[in-house]
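Reading is simple: each integer encodes one residue's backbone shape. The lines below illustrate:
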Amino acid sequence: MKERLSTALFDNSPCHIAVIDRNRQVVLTNPAFERTFANATHTTCHQLYKDCDIPCDDCLVEHTFADGIAHLSKEQGVTRCNKAIFYEAQAIPLLDEGGAVEHVVLISTDTTRTVELEQGLNQAERLANVGLSTAGLAHTIKNILAGLEGGIYMVDTGIAKEEPQRLQSGWKMVQDYIHQVESLVKNLLSYARQSESHPESVDLGELADEIVALYASKASMAGIALSTHTAAETPHLLLDRAAMHAALANLVTNAVDACTWDPNLDKDHSIVISIKPQDSGARIEVADNGTGISAENQQRLLVTTFTTKGMRGTGLGLLLTKKTAAAHGGALSFESRAGEGTTFRIDIPSTPHGVQT
């Protein structure tokens, strides 16, 4: 009876079931697995599940062989039809008569539809936020156009009056506002769309150093001390490097602005990028001692394209950073006191599966 029940469950289960040996070779599969992936025993699990010749960095099967404990994870793979599939996988030890782990049974459940629905909801939420903020964006564009008109007027009068300095100042205004238009359009498109991610192992310490090198000149010219504070061994996490670089750059840009526009001229302004390892991953902090944010404005900061910069900002930078953190399974948060400064934090888990930006 028990044997017949086990056979019936194995053959008719909608879950994908594979039995794997210590060499990562698949030795037995059920029909559901063969319909989704392939009927190819004595092939490695990473080849069948992910069409990859290299073993997974954080392998559930290896963990179970090592400690004899069941492990659960969210994964992304490739079907036999070369389509992306999201699934929850559980690795269960199969013991021999002596109690040693002889094989690992990997049971996976297809969650592709759930993931797609979640991504669709996230996309709808982003578009709704953009729609709710249309009036604010229109006001920003109006301000930019007014600035362009002012710059053009200075260029025209500089030419008419043969005043090179006035002409140069006007042309600089035109260039600055054209750059604002370009930045606004790029950020708006990036926020509204779902783009393909390119996750790779990233040394967060090196990423912080890159940002410091990028902003060192701008900070120095403004009299701001820009530095990093990292542990002796900084974490390596699986990230979309370009997206996280842009997110960190947004935070540092805001910090530089907060220090530059601080009316307290007696401060020795500083910005510190900290990388803090955590049991569940890592925390990236960008702390400044600039203007700070009022309690009233804090409630609006990460909800829509609200900005504390007036006509100098669009508010999209923080929404993009929030989106990037969420796409890596993390979160963006902050603490601030008006007149004292602000600290933004990006918390990232060590295994952010299915990164989507």
User: Anything to note?
Assistant: Residues 196-357 form a domain with the Heat Shock Protein 90 fold (CATH 3.30.565.10). Confidence is low (pLDDT under 50) at residues 305-314, 353-357. Residues 224 and 268 are 7 Å apart (CA to CA).
